């Protein structure tokens, strides 16, 4: 497929969800309902549009020139606001393509899941519209090649996620949604200042040109200020310790599909921005702050794991959904550590871990949602006590999938979670030129200790939820095992977790040449 055709495919991928969102809020003529109720028709509308976006993303991936993944492809560059030098500039390379496909896949699976299991709230029209707006903003973020366009797309995602939590969530949903929006908006304001500083000083907002220059038109002090401002804004979204405190509340309150998209896609926007913007455009500034980023990353790894261990401990009344949220703090710490190494190995590991985390944690949140549907709670003490879950004996397929996702999350070799974390630690073991080897060896050792803690809390969860007491099965009727629509929504994530674990070269072959180019050919 030639680049012009790919260009139209990419534009359709970004624009189609917006058209779908508009259609979702309009009345559905009876002739287009095909015998469905209005609510069923709206939910089917969401599946149709997200499915079309997924098909187009697969077409884009097939038509992508895999022999030249470092080259920006399917590029569109339209002078949007000449007075401000802002362009509608989109394109993809080996770094953005996997994230774009992951976004399309997770959104489609969420829409499919919601077709049968709609969260309680105002109704499906607003839900489907917000889901599609969220998809469009995320896709535009990964495809944007103009700094201001990147910022606008980045911001577009925040409002739909706020309303998904505040209107369709549970528990303290309004408080959690408000905390989410305040943290992320404050981070975005700081990030915008850094983006404007780079654009004004360099004389362009073109991300391709800025990455090619590698900061040659920016003074050292400018790079330091820009990295600090942009890095803080992106670190909130990553989420980096100690700027993570909005995340557990948001996940706990969010509906199942909200948690899946928040963990599987939105967190990746922060780390993607570090790789796409900070690393290539301000390398001197990044070099100065890299050890501090690595230190915060490994603290996050250990902190997240200790928080999960505390939640998993018997008698603490830990919430399973909150535990998975805290696990994301630890897993994203490995991504940040790989980026902070400033090496090809580490950055490739970070990008791989991004995709692996999206697949595995997305599956985990789906499974936790299913457990809550069946038992009415995600309290670990209730799920593990007498009359609790005991999934192996009462819902063996659900228990088997939960155990599979848990061992994938702890980094079992042969599954996707292994490669990203290992490559990130290998990158930190031998960091980039000029970075302190003893300091990074210490960071690597702390991160390795974090992997042991991760195994500890995830195996504890599996033991308590999946095994339970022998007498449990007699105390309460057995719940439904995996249903057909759940099987359809979860199978692709489980299958891709295995494929990525057994065939990591498929993803690394895309990212490595692009990473080499972003790092100035090093």
Q: Overview of this structure, please?
A:
With 522 residues, this protein is mainly α. The protein has a domain at 282-522. The chain contains 22 helices and 2 strands. The protein has helices spanning 3-25, 38-63, 96-116, 124-143, 147-156, 158-168, 173-202, 207-213, 220-237, 246-253, 256-281, 283-312, 320-340, 344-375, 380-384, 391-394, 396-409, 416-429, 437-467, 472-475, 484-502, 505-518, and strands spanning 73-81, 86-92. Strands 1-2 form a two-stranded antiparallel ribbon. The longest helix is centred in the C-terminal third of the chain and has 32 residues, at 344-375. It is globular. The two termini are 31 Å apart.
Summary tags:
single chain; 522 residues; mainly alpha; two-stranded antiparallel sheet; 22 helices; 74% helix; 3% strand; globular
Could you give a short description of this structure?
The chain is mainly α and 522 residues long. It contains 22 helices and 2 strands.
The total strand number stands at 2
Please tell me what the overall shape is: globular
- Calculate Rg over CA atoms: 22 Å
Distance between the termini: 31 Å
What percentage of the residues does DSSP assign to strands (E)?
under 5%
Unreliable runs: none
Q: What is the chain-wise order of helices and strands? A: HHEEHHHHHHHHHHHHHHHHHHHH
Topology:
Layout lengths: L2 H23 L12 H26 L9 E9 L4 E7 L3 H21 L7 H20 L3 H10 L1 H11 L4 H30 L4 H7 L6 H18 L8 H8 L2 H26 L1 H30 L7 H21 L3 H32 L4 H5 L6 H4 L1 H14 L6 H14 L7 H31 L4 H4 L8 H19 L2 H14 L4
Antiparallel strand pairs: 1-2
Helix pairs in contact: 1-2, 1-4, 2-3, 2-4, 3-4, 3-11, 3-14, 3-21, 4-5, 4-6, 5-7, 6-7, 7-9, 7-10, 8-11, 9-11, 9-12, 10-13, 11-13, 11-14, 12-13, 12-19, 13-14, 13-18, 13-19, 14-17, 14-18, 14-21, 14-22, 17-19, 18-19, 18-21
């Amino acid at each position: 497929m030639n680049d012009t055709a790919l260009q139209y495919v990419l534009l359709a991928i970004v624009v189609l969800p917006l058209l779908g969102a508009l259609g979702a809020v309009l009345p559905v003529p009876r002739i287009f309902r095909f015998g469905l109720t209005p609510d069923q028709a709206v939910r089917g509308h969401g599946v149709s549009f997200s499915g079309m976006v997924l098909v187009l993303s697969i077409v884009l991936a097939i038509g992508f020139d895999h022999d030249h993944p470092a080259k920006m492809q399917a590029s569109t560059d339209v002078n949007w606001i000449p007075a401000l030098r802002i362009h509608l500039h989109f394109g993809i390379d080996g770094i953005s393509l996997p994230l774009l496909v992951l976004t399309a896949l997770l959104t489609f699976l969420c829409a499919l899941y919601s077709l049968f299991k709609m969260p309680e709230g105002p109704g499906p029209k607003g839900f489907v519209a917000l889901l599609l707006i969220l998809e469009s903003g995320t896709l535009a973020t990964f495809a944007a090649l103009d700094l201001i366009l990147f910022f606008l797309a980045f911001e577009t995602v925040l409002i739909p996620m706020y309303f998904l939590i505040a209107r369709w969530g549970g528990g303290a949903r309004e408080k959690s949604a408000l905390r989410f929006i305040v943290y992320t908006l404050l981070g975005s304001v700081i990030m915008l200042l850094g983006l404007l500083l780079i654009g004004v000083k360099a004389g362009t907002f073109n991300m391709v040109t800025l990455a090619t220059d590698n900061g040659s038109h920016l003074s050292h002090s400018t790079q330091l200020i820009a990295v600090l401002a942009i890095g803080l804004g992106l670190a909130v979204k990553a989420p980096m310790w100690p700027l993570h405190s909005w995340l557990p509340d948001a996940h706990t309150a969010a509906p199942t599909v909200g948690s899946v998209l928040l963990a599987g896609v939105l967190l990746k926007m922060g780390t993607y921005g570090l790789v796409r913007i900070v690393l290539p455009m301000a390398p001197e500034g990044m070099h100065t702050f890299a050890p501090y980023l690595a230190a915060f990353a490994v603290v996050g790894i250990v902190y997240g794991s200790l928080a999960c261990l505390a939640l998993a401990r018997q008698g603490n009344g830990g919430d399973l959904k909150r535990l998975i949220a805290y696990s994301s703090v630890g897993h994203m710490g490995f991504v940040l550590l790989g980026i902070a190494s400033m090496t090809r190995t580490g950055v490739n590991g970070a990008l791989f871990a991004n995709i692996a985390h999206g697949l595995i944690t997305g599956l985990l949140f789906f499974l936790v949602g299913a457990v809550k549907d069946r038992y009415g709670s995600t309290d670990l003490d209730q799920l593990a006590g007498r009359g609790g879950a005991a999934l192996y004996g009462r819902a063996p397929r659900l228990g088997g999938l939960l155990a599979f996702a848990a061992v994938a999350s702890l980094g079992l070799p042969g599954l996707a979670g292994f490669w990203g974390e290992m490559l990130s630690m290998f990158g930190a073991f031998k960091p980039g030129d000029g970075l302190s080897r003893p300091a990074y060896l210490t960071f690597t050792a702390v991160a390795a200790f974090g992997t042991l803690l991760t195994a500890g809390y995830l195996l504890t969860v599996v033991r308590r939820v999946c095994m339970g007491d022998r007498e449990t099965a007699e105390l309460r009727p057995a719940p439904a095992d995996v249903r057909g629509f759940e099987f359809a929504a979860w199978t692709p994530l489980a299958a891709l977790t295995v494929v990525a674990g057994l065939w990591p070269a498929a993803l690394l072959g895309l990212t490595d040449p692009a990473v080499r180019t972003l790092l100035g050919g090093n």
